[in-house]
Amino acid sequence: QVQLVESGGGLVQAGGSLRLSCEASGNTFSFNVMGWYRQAPGRQRELVASINNGGITNYADSVKGRFTISRDNTKNTVALQMNSLKPEDTAVYFCNARSALDIVRNSYGYWGQGTQVTVSS
Q1: DSSP states along 6-72
Q2: 24 vs 26, higher pLDDT
């Protein structure tokens, strides 16, 4: 069974940076899209950034110019570089991976356990 494990979360002051990493383990599958979601207490889960097999990226308007998503195929990892962090970025960040079948079925696919990011003012 595939597992997605996030790391790199923590506490940082506003204006600082963090780099999140998601490592895939277990059986190998073809993931069409991988991305990062976040959810703050009392708020809806939202897509932060995604990257498909062709390297095409997509970002939420709130993080454009500040966050960068990347994929290292040799290590089966996806990373999220977070710069110029703001208190409103505080949330649990989840790694997500979807196969072509997941996309066809409108399924969210695989999820990591989440990592806490806290930005203080």
Answers
A1: EE--EEEETT--EEEEEEEESS----SEEEEEEE-TTS--EEEEEEETT--EEE-TTTTTTEEEEEE
A2: 24
